[in-house]
Amino acid sequence: MTSAWRVRLRTSVRVETLPRVGVALYFDRCPNSGLECLSEEKSKRLDGRGSEAASFARQGKAIRNRNRETAASYARFGRSEGTDPAGAFPVHPAPTPLERGYPGDRSSPSRVQSPVTAVKGRAQPGSRMPAALGHGSSVLVGVDGCRGGWIAVSDWGGSLDAGVHESWLSLVGNTKPDALIAVDIPIGLPARGARACDVDARRFLGVPRGSSVFPAPVRACLPTGSYEIIAARHRRADGRGLSKQAFHLLPKIRELDEYLLEHTREISRIYEVHPEVSFATWNEGRALQHSKATAAGRAEREQLIDAIWQGERERLWARVQGRRCRPDDLNDAFAALWTAVRIARGSARRRPQAMETDEHGLRMEIVA
């Protein structure tokens, strides 16, 4: 007598072995779970003997193993409200290998449980965001700027990939059109004054990490020009000067701003994050002690990353090394990806609590 495997959708992920006389000939993907399950209407009974039955039994065993890997992948990030009705799965179901769009059907990158499945440290200001129910994509992308353009770490339903893209158009062109993207760059820009999200993020991080959150430039600074011209323009509009750091980020701010204003439907799937806010939230609500530019700081951040994606950081660094990016750029992209997972689950928080938008309707918020 053979066995067939069925995944039950309850309050937690379980894979049960149910004895039956026959095995299923067809396997379907359970909606909103990314797991494969038996297709009752297509299943047939076999006599339990012969090569045909043995072949289907092997297929069933392979599917059971893949489901366990998928369940382990979901368990890495814990459970939260705002997922599927059963509360067990992220909103974005895992794709089939063909849907992933690139070779390599890797299972869950790690079975290691995250050391931070809930924020237990300091109180977390900010309002909880609803799950990103409108996307329906299995692809989550974390993005950081780098000298080579944009470095992106993508989770294609449990299989990670990374790349450096010279332009934002190249980045979005190399992922699914409905992928959820978390990016470290200011999105909504004020006409004058500081954004509440920047003030809130600096307060949350404290000294010294709060200094990594620089004030976003005002919208009047977007037209190109020298530092002296744009700094004077910023002072006329706002009364404050413009930091050199903000000036050097203006090309990327301008690039994404132009894209969003030309593709307004994309606004709902692209979120602004800040790696230090993400890492602090990841670290039980406590800002990391050391600068990311130091060996100790890299070790702090990589310990968090490796606890979830064991071995993936080194593998992906080998893919992007030499593409005008640094290890801390890759670490920041991982932090953005971790936040994208939380956005999809509905456990992310936005700063400030009351959402603000700029004059074009772009959200002025930092999500973690």
Structure write-up:
There is one protein chain. The chain is of the alpha+beta class. It folds into 2 domains: 3-75, no CATH class; 99-367, no CATH class. Helix content is 35%, strand content 18%. The chain has 10 helices and 12 strands. The strands form 4 sheets. The protein has a 5-stranded mixed sheet with strand order 8-7-6-9-10. A 3-stranded antiparallel sheet has the order 5-11-12. Helix 7 (275-282) packs across helix 10 (327-345) and helix 8 (295-308) runs parallel beside helix 10. The protein is globular.
What is the end-to-end distance?
51 Å
Strand content: 15-25%
User: Given the helix and strand composition, which structural class is it?
Assistant: alpha+beta
Strand order of the largest sheet: 8-7-6-9-10
Give the structure's gist in a few sentences.
The protein has helices at 50-75, 97-100, 168-173, 196-205, 227-238, 244-262, 275-282, 295-308, 312-320, 327-345, and strands at 3-9, 13-19, 27-29, 36-38, 127-128, 139-146, 149-156, 159-165, 180-184, 270-272, 349-357, 363-367. It is α+β, with helices and mostly antiparallel strands and 368 residues long.
Please supply descriptive tags for the structure shown above.
globular, 368 residues, 3-stranded antiparallel β-sheet, 5-stranded mixed β-sheet, disordered N terminus
Topology:
Elements: E1 3-9, E2 13-19, E3 27-29, E4 36-38, H1 50-75, H2 97-100, E5 127-128, E6 139-146, E7 149-156, E8 159-165, H3 168-173, E9 180-184, H4 196-205, H5 227-238, H6 244-262, E10 270-272, H7 275-282, H8 295-308, H9 312-320, H10 327-345, E11 349-357, E12 363-367
Parallel strand pairs: 6-9, 9-10
Antiparallel strand pairs: 1-2, 3-4, 5-11, 6-7, 7-8, 11-12
Helix pairs in contact: 7-10, 8-10
